[in-house]
Design brief:
single chain, about 240 residues, mainly alpha, about 80% helix
């Protein structure tokens, strides 16, 4: 598993694509937080990173599928998956290795955003910020990214075309993040099952953790979704 993770990690940074992807992620956040009119923290008037944590899921919906679209699709297309099968590794170890590499890339992309905390603290009139809420939001953001990575890995295992894998992943992440919340707002569910339907969506649990309270129910939800999609990926590989 470790060998697969190292291979995937080095492959991601073996070209400019990996660096450009992370730079674009950081650039979009900086523009939104500090430059764009009416959205930046200077116009908002409060030393808070809420805008960043509201924007990041939207970026991840497209960024993470772009990272994961080639994980299995290219292996199937080039025929290297058959070669991979000859190694003393189980399909579960292959899936876990590729998934671990994606998590490592996500962490590297998030680390530079810690500079936003220093910036916000320096801009605060009291020199203090809500550290608990920010810590909870970062935990929620990482778990959200981990779920998107699991979904994208599964989508990549469905096809040998990386573009199709990207489109499937982005659509699946979008639906699972916003879909249940949108369905819960339909008049037929209002005041009846709307709360329970909303609970099925990723957004509900992400917003819950972002308040600064890490509830075990939210953590269990995220880990359950991750396991479900990684297990489905492993089953797809068994069929191959």
């Amino acid at each position: 598993m470790i060998s697969i993770a190292k291979k995937e990690f080095h492959q991601f940074f073996s070209s400019l694509t990996g660096y450009i992807t992370i730079i674009l992620f950081l650039l979009v956040n900086v523009l939104y937080l500090f430059v764009l009119k009416d959205n930046n923290i200077f116009d908002f008037g409060y030393a808070t990173l809420s805008s960043f944590f509201d924007l990041a899921p939207w970026i991840f919906i497209f960024l993470i599928p772009a990272l994961a679209m080639r994980s299995f699709a290219d292996e199937f297309k080039t025929g290297t998956f058959e070669t991979l099968q000859t190694r003393p590794l189980t399909n579960w170890q292959i899936v876990a290795g590729k998934y671990a590499a994606m998590l490592a890339v996500i962490i590297i992309a998030l680390i530079p955003t810690f500079l936003y905390i220093i910036t916000i603290r320096s801009l605060s009139s009291t020199g203090d910020i809500d550290g608990g809420a920010i810590a909870g939001s970062y935990i929620g953001l990482f778990l959200l990214a981990a779920v998107f990575a699991a979904i994208s890995t599964w989508c990549s295992s469905l096809t040998s075309n990386a573009i199709i894998a990207f489109l499937l992943s982005a659509f699946a992440c979008l639906i699972l993040y916003f879909g249940f919340g949108a369905i819960s707002k339909l008049p037929v569910f209002t005041g009846n099952a709307d709360y329970y339907i909303e609970m099925l969506g990723i957004d509900f649990h992400y917003q819950s953790i972002s308040r600064g309270v890490v509830d075990s129910r939210d953590v269990i939800y995220f880990f359950s979704i991750i396991f479900l999609f990684l297990f489905a990926t492993q089953k797809n590989l068994n069929k191959k």
